[in-house]
Amino acid sequence: MKIFILLFYVIVTLVYSKYLDNKSCSECHENIYNEFQSSMHSKNYFTDELHRKVANKANSKKYECAVCHMPMANNLKDLVSGKARPDKNNKTQTDAISCYFCHTIAYVKKAHKHNINIKARQAENYKPTLYGRLTNPDENDKHTSSSNPIYAKVVCTGCHSHKLNDNNTTIFTAMAKDQNSLECIKCHMPKIEGGAEKMNKRSRRYHASHKFLGIHDKEFRKKGVDINATIQNNKLKIILINKMPHPLIIQPARAKFLKIIIKERGKTIWQNYKNKPSEDKQAYFSYSFKKDGKKIVVPATATESKAYNLNAKELKTLIYNIPHLEKGDIIKISLYVQLAKSDCAKAIGLKDKKLLTPSLIKTITIKKD
Ligand code: HEC
Ligand code: HEC
Ligand code: HEC
Ligand code: HEC
Ligand code: HEC
Questions:
Q1: Is the CB of 48 inside a 6 Å radius of any atom of ligand 2?
Q2: Ligand 2 mean position, distance from CA 253 (Å)
Q3: Looking at residues 21-32, what average pLDDT do you find?
Q4: Which tens digit of pLDDT belongs to each residue from 314-355?
Q5: Which of 198, 197, 296 is nearest to 252 (CA)?
Q6: CB 132 near ligand 3, within 6 Å
Q7: What's the 132 CA to ligand 3 centre distance in angstroms?
Q8: Which terminus of the chain faces fewer neighbouring Cβ atoms within 10 Å, N or C?
Q9: Residue 246 and residue 3: Cα distance in Å, rounded?
Q10: More confident of the two residues 18 and 228
């Protein structure tokens, strides 16, 4: 009997020693763990309603999205083929884009539909080969990292580069073929105060933020686009500059658009759209999909895709004919994001109304003088 218990224990240890879960890192990397928990990378099929509902609509049997959204799943193949469904009691699934996953990517293989993350073989003694600071990697007693080929700077490209569906239709393109991740890390993982680990024996003052701030953060999202405007006679000229090295629209569920209001003595005298922001075609940025010539919303089966976008570092000039302005008239130009477009929210029966309500990205006001 004892030998069986021992054998059982050995098997369990062998199976589970392969994956170090997020929580296990928090013992020493407490701050980084808390930052990560607040990030979109910690969101998963169960906690991200938008993702779950689009996934179920795209395919109610196969969960192909797992390769990027649940990459550490110990039954990844079965999820993708439809033999298994997501299980909220499986940590390798609920850990989402986990610490261990990112920190054991060895290299990224470029591929047509989407790139593929190749995992590092486990290092000696079952310690993971982790990597850290890209500029100043260490050898330390806990992990070895300096020989990890991830220093080829490809860590974000396995999931964030591009995605096509089975009909070769583009679902998103965020990065150019040879674009590396260093830039991404500079903006999305800035250095913030505090050491990288609790004991901080090396007295480090900074570590790379793992909040991965993006469009969901009120302050951070102000930094992506510059808005400039001038009035010449009866024309309003707006210049939008995308400062990001990726398009304004990456995720096809979203819309980003301008709302322009002109006020004279407190009363609105002009607006760039009446009811829906999409009426103003030149300032409504979004993806649209068709299947065999007919408009569809969930892109999984689309045969055509089109994006009206502000591309990486692109400058776009918009011209509007406006009424004659008087001194003191006020023009307010605001860029908004709708995290889930109205038609998408409707198609998937989204409950969380916050995702539908436009959120302000940035606003400027000018006064006619
Ligand atoms: C027992 C404590 C402990 C645990 C648990 C732990 N680490 Fe570490 N880790 C450290 C120490 C100590 C350092 C060195 C910190 C320094 O150099 O300031 C470190 C450094 C790192 C680095 C930087 C490596 C380098 O060479 O630059 C990464 C990345 C890292 N850990 C990831 C993880 C991940 C992911 C987990 C969970 C799977 C984890 N660690 C669990 C103690 C730990
Ligand atoms: C090639 C990797 C990859 C695959 C495969 C993939 N995604 Fe994603 N997905 C991403 C990335 C990267 C983001 C973050 C992009 C962003 O926020 O703009 C994302 C974000 C999303 C979001 C937005 C989530 C939110 O709450 O804001 C939805 C919805 C989504 N994906 C749905 C899906 C569905 C459904 C599938 C499977 C049919 C899928 N994805 C497969 C990489 C992928
Ligand atoms: C999306 C990929 C990704 C995930 C998920 C991720 N990391 Fe990192 N981590 C990185 C990158 C990239 C760096 C290097 C940043 C740099 O050099 O500026 C890094 C750096 C680190 C460092 C060294 C920090 C420093 O500034 O010295 C530690 C420690 C670390 N990560 C631990 C963790 C832990 C713990 C988790 C989970 C709670 C985690 N990471 C999740 C990508 C990731
Ligand atoms: C100059 C700073 C900067 C750099 C460099 C940068 N980003 Fe961004 N990124 C932003 C800002 C600001 C936002 C939020 C504003 C927005 O999306 O309109 C954002 C948004 C995002 C989003 C969410 C978009 C959405 O609507 O869901 C993703 C995903 C993203 N970035 C990934 C990347 C990747 C991958 C790279 C590397 C190719 C990268 N970023 C490089 C500044 C940057
Ligand atoms: C294993 C795949 C994977 C890798 C590797 C990865 N990401 Fe992501 N990332 C995702 C997915 C999936 C999402 C969307 C999660 C969701 O919304 O449910 C996302 C979301 C984001 C967002 C959006 C935040 C927001 O507010 O919408 C940013 C920014 C981001 N990632 C940056 C990075 C950076 C920088 C790297 C490289 C250091 C990286 N990611 C590596 C899969 C990945």
A1: yes
A2: 9
A3: 95
A4: 999 999 999 999 999 999 999 999 999 999 999 999 999 999
A5: 296
A6: yes
A7: 6
A8: N
A9: 58
A10: 228
